[in-house]
From TrEMBL:
Keywords: Cell cycle, DNA damage, Growth arrest, Nucleus, Phosphoprotein. The keyword Nucleus applies. Residues 24-105 form the Ribosomal protein eL8/eL30/eS12/Gadd45 domain. The keyword Cell wall biogenesis/degradation does not apply. InterPro entries: GADD45, Ribosomal_eL30-like_sf, Ribosomal_eL8/eL30/eS12/Gad45. GO terms for cellular component: cytoplasm; nucleus. This is Growth arrest and DNA damage-inducible protein GADD45 alpha. It is found in: Nucleus. It comes from the Eukaryota.
Length: 159
């Protein structure tokens, strides 16, 4: 159930709020990467979601302008979004795959380019992950759902 004030429900998110969420997302990814809590790639993400959806804490779908015309990718996104909504997994869309690649260490893995269209953040098995940045991103996703924006779009700023 969504409990928000009228001020929170009215209008779009401010640019300042969006920047705060984008920075929190960068922090989440930066912390999760060395812990091995990142799954990269549409097919790898689908496998991970199938095996252990309860371990996934965030799903990021990334596109650039050229990807909008890729019908197969859009079908994959639709299926992943539906699965995440059904399993109460927070979802974000990111419109800057180049910046996402920088955050994730260059966008290559073993010399091969990574498929950055779908990135999952999982919870470490060792303990329950209490990350304030992750809480901020998840709260933003929940609030967006309350405003019928099921997959909010975040613009990762260039550095």
């Amino acid at each position: 159930m969504c409990k928000m004030t009228f001020e929170e429900l009215s209008g779009d998110y401010s640019a300042e709020r969006m920047d705060t969420v984008a920075k929190a997302l960068e922090e989440v990814l930066s912390l999760a990467l060395p812990q091995g809590c990142i799954t990269v790639g549409v097919y790898e993400a689908a496998k991970s979601l199938n095996v252990d959806p309860d371990n996934v804490v965030l799903c990021i779908l990334a596109t650039d302008d050229d990807d909008v015309k890729d019908v197969a990718l859009q079908i994959h996104f639709t299926l992943i979004q539906a699965f995440c909504c059904e399993n109460d997994i927070s979802i974000l869309r990111v419109n800057n795959t180049r910046r996402l690649a920088e955050i994730l260490g260059g966008g290559t893995q073993g010399g091969e380019p990574m498929d950055l269209h779908c990135v999952l953040v999982t919870s470490p098995h060792s303990s329950s992950w209490k990350d304030p940045a992750l809480s901020k991103v998840n709260r933003f996703c929940r609030e967006s759902r309350c405003m019928d924006q099921w997959v909010p779009i975040i613009n990762l700023p260039e550095r």
